[in-house]
C-alpha cells in the first residue's frame, strides 16, 4: 500500500463521513422534534436530542380510530398496487427486451411518449370517473400501474442476461412463460427487489390520487389523513376530538407525520437492500 493510496483512503473516509452526517442529521432532528415540547422547537433549541419530552401529538394521532383505518388502507393500497405494477412492468419489460420482436420499436415509443405527454388532470379525472373507478382502490392502482422509468430499467436488465440461458431452456422444452418464470425471474432478484421498493415507496407516499378520486374518509390512505391533520381540515371529516388538540402540538405535528409515514419503509428497507448489489449473473455462463 503506497503513501498516496493511504492518503486517498483517508480523504475518502472523511468525505464519506461528512456525507453520512449530512444525510442523517435532518432525519434525527425530525425525530427529536417529534418528541419535543413545542416551545423548545419554536425557540430553535432542539437539535439531536428531544427537549421537554412530549408525546401529545403521537397521542392525538394514535387515539383516533380513523388514523388506524386510513393506515390499514395505505397498507392494502400499497401491496395491491405494487403487485399489479410489478406484474405489468415485468411482462412489458421482458417483451421489449426481445430484439427480434416485430413492432418492438413502436411499443418502446408508446411507453417513452407517455414520459413527455399525458392527457392532463381533467381528462384523467373524467376517464377514471367514467370507468367507475372513483372511491375504489383501482383509482390509485391502475392509472399509475407502469412507471416508464422502472420499465426501461427492467428492460435494460433483461437485455443484459445471456441469450444462451434462454436458448438452453428452450431446447429443454420450456415455453416463453416457463423461461420467464423459471429462468429469468430467479436471476433478476436484484432488479425486482429494487423495482418493488421504488413502487412501494411511490404508492405509500402518494396522496394526490386518493385526494382527487376518493370522497369518503374511510377510504383515505394515511397520507391524506395526515395532510388534512396538518391543514386543520379533518374536524368534520372523521378526526373527531383529535383536531381539538392539534393547535397544542402545531409546532411538531409535521415532524410526527414524517416519522409515522417513513417508519414502515425504514423497517422494510434492510430486508431489500441486500438485493441491490447486482452480481447474480457472475459466472452463470462459462465458455
UniProtKB/TrEMBL annotation:
Q: Which UniProt keywords apply?
A: Cell membrane, Membrane, Transmembrane, Transmembrane helix, Transport
The membrane-spanning stretches of this chain are 12-32, 75-94, 106-125, 137-158, 179-204, 224-244, 256-272
According to the UniProt entry, the coiled-coil residues are none
Indicate the segments forming the ABC transmembrane type-1 domain, all copies: 71-269
Q: Which Gene Ontology BP terms does the record give?
A: transmembrane transport
Among Pfam families, the record links this protein to: BPD_transp_1
Q: Which domain of life is it from?
A: Bacteria
Tell me if ATP-binding is a UniProt keyword of this record. Answer: no
Q: Which GO terms describe its cellular component?
A: plasma membrane
Q: Per UniProt, what is the membrane topology? A: Multi-pass membrane protein
- Keyword Thylakoid assigned to the entry: answer is no
The places in or outside the cell where this protein is found are: Cell membrane
The entry's family comment says: Belongs to the binding-protein-dependent transport system permease family.
Q: What is this protein called?
A: Carbohydrate ABC transporter permease
| Organism encoding this protein | Nonomuraea terrae
